[in-house]
Design a protein that fits this description.
By secondary structure, the chain is of the alpha+beta class. Helix content is 48%, strand content 24%.
Length: 170
């Protein structure tokens, strides 16, 4: 159930590319490959006969738990990507993310110091990029991942121009 604090009335949210799901799954899979291999080692040792003292059910429990966790994560990642959005308003940029714990970040154009665009190898292969806003506050982590490259370039130029216009008035 949306609230006005998280979903202000009259705001049209733009979503990131659905191809960003592939980037997130690839990153998650690579990060967990070593963990799955290590947790599968007791099962391999029991099945091969090297480690007879460990019950088979216990050796199989760790990989089974990892498979269940992987299935949960594969269901969750697409929903997390759909929850990421941004909206350009007259004086600020809104960035939204989160399913269970929703968050909306408001970045005034006049507080932007510079706009950074980056893309990893998987993102480049899919034609995506991530836009990061750097503000006067070092604690601000304003990032919009999963943007199509053309939209990222347009947004970078638009935000830079708006930021410079707002700073000129100070």
């Amino acid at each position: 159930m949306p609230t006005e604090a998280i979903d202000p009335p009259g705001v049209t949210w733009l979503r990131v590319s659905p191809r960003y799901v592939t980037v997130r799954i690839a990153g998650w899979a690579l990060g967990n490959l070593i963990v799955v291999a290590v947790l599968s080692l007791p099962l391999i040792l029991v099945l091969s006969g090297w480690w007879k003292a460990l019950p088979l059910w216990l050796a199989a429990a760790l990989p089974a738990a990892m498979v269940l966790l992987a299935l949960w994560r594969l269901l969750l990642i697409p929903r997390q990507v759909r929850a990421i959005g941004y909206a350009e308003r007259e004086d600020d940029l809104l960035i939204r993310r989160g399913i269970f714990f929703q968050r909306v970040l408001v970045v005034p154009y006049g507080r932007m110091q510079y706009v950074d665009i980056g893309a990893g190898p998987v993102e480049r292969g899919l034609g995506l990029c991530a836009l990061k806003l750097h503000t006067a506050s070092s604690g601000t982590s304003a990032e919009i991942p999963g943007l199509p490259a053309a939209e990222g370039a347009r947004l970078r130029e638009q935000l830079s121009a708006r930021g410079e216009a707002r700073l000129a008035g100070l």
